[in-house]
């Protein structure tokens, strides 16, 4: 009987996806693809990968770019910490490794935002290092193949799956094997309605034999999702509009948006007007409300955003310290959250 690795590699040769980052051994481009594909579908991620490699063909060009340009190019992918870490890591490669992407697993792992999975994926694909990857697809394939009930979101479970993945690795072809098992999970051993009757691993799948395919893998529990209420003040005067750059360790760090008043529950404009943040922003200049626009609910991984944009015109802008006046025609040049981008597109601003 063929080993699991042999079956996966044979399946991959016939049915694996032809993706641009699989046609290269350049660690920079492999790394770029891995970062982009975190929390992103392949179809969408491919467009961004091609856009990034055209603008930043090597790690030095990415390192030399201003952060605002990197964030603007990333706009629409979400999870913007990935873009900031990508940019910071590119600068680490230039500063610490002379612009040459590191080879040793631990050196790759030391780069900003690079975890065990990403380091293993880069080193196996670029250098044939015998490092097994463990992502959501691999968890699912292994949990079903060996009928494991260890929670994949527990410390013990993660350790057990990492050891199992390493034991199954084809060390002669680690890069191809890793791509094979990930594609197998994405295309064949899918989360729901897997085609088990036509699976080349059906004869070796313990979960299929036990009737537990739908129950694998196991998770301990879900993280609580919290609600947030965003009240945006879209303030314009003539051909200029106020923008604010998000700082701190909250969502969308480094992106631009309209001045924001966040409240603990839904708030009407008269309530906002009485707040010091509103008075600081508008000052004593006369203003009038053009329109209040509720935006569609915006779902993040652990947060639900309820946003309203109050479009306000005033005779003069007196920007608060946290805001700046920019030409309205140039709003599209700034990297903004998807929530704001959709608003700008819909209302042709």
UniProtKB/TrEMBL annotation:
Its cofactor is [4Fe-4S] cluster. It comes from the Bacteria. PROSITE patterns: ENDONUCLEASE_III_1. The keyword Hydrolase applies. Residues 36-187 form the HhH-GPD domain. Coiled coil: none annotated. Its EC number is 3.2.2.31. It catalyses: Hydrolyzes free adenine bases from 7,8-dihydro-8-oxoguanine:adenine mismatched double-stranded DNA, leaving an apurinic site. Keywords: 4Fe-4S, DNA damage, DNA repair, Glycosidase, Hydrolase, Iron, Iron-sulfur, Metal-binding. CDD domains: ENDO3c (cd00056), NUDIX_DNA_Glycosylase_C-MutY (cd03431). Pfam families: EndIII_4Fe-2S, HhH-GPD, NUDIX_4. Binds 1 [4Fe-4S] cluster. Belongs to the Nth/MutY family. Adenine glycosylase active on G-A mispairs. MutY also corrects error-prone DNA synthesis past GO lesions which are due to the oxidatively damaged form of guanine: 7,8-dihydro-8-oxoguanine (8-oxo-dGTP). This is Adenine DNA glycosylase.
